[in-house]
Design a protein that fits this description.
The protein is of the alpha/beta class and 306 residues long. Helices cover 43% and strands 23% of the residues. The chain contains 11 helices and 11 strands.
C-alpha cells in the first residue's frame, strides 16, 4: 500500500521549528537558511490546508493543528534515529559510559590492558558522575555502559553482572590506631558521607543493627564515592567505601578497615548494551574480559553480610 506522506525534509523543518519555537534556531540546527525553513513550513501548510505557526511579535507559536501534529512527528523521527543508530557504529570502537569512582579505581587500568590484548578494538571511555546510574542509548553517544543497579533493565538490552557492591567503613591507617574498634569509637568518629543523602552509611548501620546507636548528623558530605574515599585516606574521618573499590589501597596500606564486616547494598555493577546494536561480538569480548578480571580480584578478608 502506498503511504501518502508529505516530504520528510519538510516534516524535519517543522519538528525543529516547533521544538525551538524559532525558524532561525531551526535553520541553524538543520544547517539550512531561514527562508528554506519558511518554504518547508509553507509546503506543509499547503499539504494540510491549515496554518501551523502564528507570529506574535518576534516569536512564533504553534497553532492548535500543529500542536496535534508535533508529538507524532517527534516520535517518528526518534524512531528513525533509533533504527539508524543500529547501523551507524564503528566496528572497531566501543563507546563506554561508566561511573566516575568505578572508572578511577577499577575500570581505567583494566581497559588499558584490554586495548593491549585487543589491538583491533578501541574502547572510548567517558567517566560520568551519576547520582542514579542510567544511560539513554537513543540520545547519548554510547554503545555500552557499566551501571550500578539492582539489575532491572530494558528488555531491549543485554546485561552481564560483573560484581556486587559491598559497603564497608574505611579510614587512614593513622586514624585506625592500635585499639580494636567498637561502637563507642564509631560514635566518636567523624563520619564522611560520600552521598548527600547519607544512604551508604544508613545501609551499613541498619544491617549491623547500629542505627539507633550511631548518629548520621554532621560530618563531611561529598557527592561521589571517590571523594569520600580520598577524604578518609587523608585522615579527615571514617567514610563508607565499596570493598572492590578500596581493595588495592587496603592491600597497599594506604587505607585501613576499622570494621571487618562488609554489607551488601543490594546492587551490583553490570555491563549493559542494546541487543539491536551491530557487532554484538565486540560486546561479548569486553564482557568476557571484564569477568576474567573480576575473577582475579584480590579482596581483603572480611565478613560479608546481607
Amino acid at each position: 500500500m502506498t503511504r501518502r506522506l508529505p516530504p520528510l525534509y519538510a516534516l524535519r523543518a517543522f519538528e525543529a521549528a516547533a521544538r525551538h519555537c524559532s525558524f532561525t534556531r531551526a535553520a541553524d540546527e538543520l544547517a539550512i537558511t531561514q527562508s528554506a525553513v519558511s518554504r518547508h513550513i509553507r509546503s506543509l501548510e499547503d499539504y494540510f490546508a491549515c496554518r501551523l505557526f502564528e507570529r506574535r511579535g518576534r516569536a512564533v507559536h504553534l497553532t492548535e493543528p500543529a500542536s496535534l501534529l508535533l508529538p507524532g512527528v517527534h516520535e517518528g523521527f526518534e524512531s528513525l534515529e533509533r533504527a539508524c543508530a543500529t547501523l551507524l557504529v564503528e566496528d572497531g570502537t566501543l563507546r563506554l559510559k561508566a561511573p566516575s569512582t568505578l572508572t578511577m579505581r577499577w575500570l581505567l587500568a583494566r581497559l588499558s590492558l584490554f586495548r593491549a590484548r585487543h589491538a583491533g578494538l578501541e574502547v572510548q571511555l567517558t567517566s560520568a558522575w551519576m547520582d542514579l546510574d542510567r544511560v539513554d542509548f537513543l540520545h547519548e553517544p554510547f554503545d555500552c555502559a557499566v551501571l550500578l543497579s539492582a539489575g532491572t533493565f530494558s528488555n531491549e538490552w543485554h546485561s552481564v553482572r560483573l560484581f556486587e557492591e559491598w559497603l564497608i567503613p574505611v579510614c587512614a591507617p593513622a586514624v585506625l590506631g592500635e585499639q580494636p574498634w567498637n561502637v563507642s569509637r564509631l560514635q566518636q568518629a567523624e563520619l564522611v558521607h560520600p552521598t548527600p543523602d547519607r544512604r551508604d552509611w544508613r545501609r551499613w548501620l541498619q544491617a549491623m543493627g547500629l542505627t539507633d546507636q550511631v548518629s548520621l548528623k554532621g560530618g563531611q558530605v561529598f557527592d561521589t564515592l571517590e571523594l569520600g574515599i580520598v577524604a578518609a585516606a587523608r585522615g579527615y574521618g571514617v567514610s563508607i567505601g565499596d570493598l572492590a573499590m578500596v581493595a588495592e589501597d587496603v592491600l597497599l596500606g594506604h587505607l585501613a578497615l576499622p570494621w571487618s564486616t562488609a554489607v551488601s547494598s543490594g546492587e551490583s555493577y553490570y555491563l549493559v548494551w542494546p541487543k539491536a546494536r551491530r557487532g554484538q561480538e565486540r560486546f561479548g569480548r569486553l564482557a568476557e574480559f571484564l569477568l576474567a578480571e573480576v575473577a582475579a580480584m584480590q579482596l581483603p578478608e572480611v565478613e560479608l553480610r546481607r
